What does this fold into?
Amino acid sequence: MSTGAAAYPTTWRPPALFGSRARQRLALLGVLAYLVWSVSDLNVDVNRVLAGFPRALDIFGRMIPPDFTRWQLLATGMLESVQMALAATLAGLVLSVPLGIAAARNLAPRAVYLAARGLIVLGRTLHEVIIAIFFVKLFGFGPVAGLLTLAFASAIFLGKMLAEDIENVRIGPVEAVRATGAGFGQTVVYAIVPQVLARTVGVIIYRLDANVRHSTVIGIVGAGGIGQTLSASFSRYDFDFALAILLSIIALVALGEWFSDWVRRKLR
Amino acid sequence: MAGVLPADAARENSRGALLAVEALTKVYPGGQRALDGVSLVVERPEIVAIIGSSGAGKSTLIRCINRLVEPTSGQIWLGAAEIVGVSRRELRRLRRRIAMIFQEFNLVERLTVMENVLSGRLGSVGFFASAFRRFPPQDIAGAYAVLDRVGLGGYHDTRADALSGGQRQRVGIARALMQNPDLLLVDEPTASLDPKTARQIMRLIRELATERRRPALVNIHDVALAQSFADRVVGLKSGRVAFDGPPSALSAETLTEIYGAEDWSQTIRRADDETEGRQ
Amino acid sequence: MRTIATAPDKRYPDVWRRRSLRETVTGWLWTAAIAFAAAWSVSALDIEWAFFVDAHEQALDLAQRMWPPRWSYLPVIVRPLIETIHIATLGTMIALVLSIPLAFLAARNTTANGFTWAIGRALLVASRSVNTIIWGLVFVAIFGPGAVAGIAAVAARSVGFLAKLVAEAIEEADRGQIEAIEATGASTAQVYLVGILPQVMPVLIGTTVYRWDINVRESSVLGFVGAGGIGLYLYASINQFAWQQVLVVLAAILVIVLVSEAVSAYIRARIS
It folds into this structure.
């Protein structure tokens, strides 16, 4: 290794990101400048943040042990969340069929297609909690508003998936089945359903799982379910009950995810 | 570079060997006995080809020496240091003295050639130096020199995944040389390469090991290639040493002993025709 | 005698079914169970169907009260909109930094032992199962109302999301590249840094950018629980029945969410 070591450079830097060293430095400066700007723009009160850490310990201390004595209230809220999720998945599934057909470019007239796509963009962009607050205004506090919120969100999601499926149906198998002399119903059953069934069931189960997650949240604005119970417990500084609710939510969501994964693995 | 370094004398164990493997046994969790009491002594800087059919334990043997595979029993001496019994910490120190070249090259694909070569020096730099790629100047100069030596001068800023198979193996060799190792372990270096590149790579490994006066253990399934480039051939069969001797001593009978019955006349004649690499 | 006549030809069954009887029955049972559960859920929720009779009229009424949008409100919400993006960005940055050690803790091949793995997994599940806005409730209790609670909430939810995907990438990392670094005598930390991190970098960056655009959407409602951003203004406008303002806020949220989605998609397309 000693031979000619002097002839070789003794420094090496990795190739610069973004093409050149100057641009890399500029990018780094940009990030730093953003951090300075955003933090100063947010008027972060350092003292309040620092005060937060002992308060976090205090709250944590008051959370432990979690209080499961009001388990009936907890169970009612959890059950309501699950019921909202289940019912909303079913309602969303029914509503998604017309929406999906309307949003399929190869099926729907242009005006209908654009309107349906617009609704899908709107529904996907606005957070469930925003949708929920409108349904609460229309139908009052309670699980009905939650059910409608989740049904709306599910219809948007499933409708989008259905529209994509319809647009992507491969025409080859359809023609092949039709060429054997099959009627319309037979063609649908033999050529289209097999193409989309497994994926569709997977998507529905996924949505059920997503609805369970969201059902725990929309109660924050009064749309029923466990979220409403949780929100109330926080506003009453009822932290040990809040932890019991949080742990229950974690268990429910983890269970839902496990179930959804399990079903989709089975389908594959 | 000329002559055995003085330090080498101290590294030798009581038996005067650079590497001594004693009664090495490896039983995999499934009960498969991959090595069954292998003993092997390397006393001078020579190229030892390890041949044998697949499943004979070639790869297990090489990987037991730097404990990428944990041996079940036996001892391995690198000079005066025993490898099998030592702690993880001590093992890391010993691994720095043993360099390995892999069949699949095993370069970190998303890093540059230079970063891959310098990774041979990781044992000698701290965590933050490696995080910010701050290697000592002599390592960097050494890396440039080694890259030149393996024929990849100018490729230092190329990403490893942009190289051809032969070029990748050259980077793998350069990484190994950066460790300035006392022993080279080479695991099927040519199995992923075309025949011409395979010969070039084998020649390079032989030249470099000879230049640096370091022993090399080379797993190789191509008997002709082993005969052309090795000073010594060890044949493994079912985890035991079935042959140990110079390439010239390999006969149809010994090959049958190692691999089972087959017409070996073609293999042996071809090896006799080609004596390149062994001056 | 009949058996002799038919046996040689009986290599194929007379009937063919795509699924076995058992599979068919199981499938129907699942379908029936889900339908039953959904029907029971609808009935259990005590829905006042009378509400729905005039729902469309109410909705139309609401829409009319929203129109025309009060654009003069727009200057008021520019700062909260920027704050919303700040909350999403800073929260994602913190999550990015925290997710790397968590991912190594939660990946089977890099965690120290079964105990540390269980801790890593538990943190992942807790982080992911609690929605951003619920984390918002928790952090408002800790830090008081404001953007800091929002940033913490976004970070708390995102860290599990990022770490789960990165941990999966670590578990799927090429073993050979890791072995090669181990064989040089590098320390465990160096093996993670040089052998594994470069392999999971594309997943790390891609999911971070993806999560950022989800977080812009999430941040738009954090204000509902007092955790800063535009949500507070939306909530206030709704509670004041200032529907023309509400429409302006909704339009603004729509724009920032759609723009961030486009930016995120563009960056991800560029890096892959």
Q: What stands out?
A: Chain A has two domains: 21-63, 71-267. The two ends of chain A are 56 Å apart (CA to CA). Residues 71-267 of chain A form a domain with the MetI-like fold fold (CATH 1.10.3720.10). Chain A touches chain B through 15 residues (CB under 8 Å).
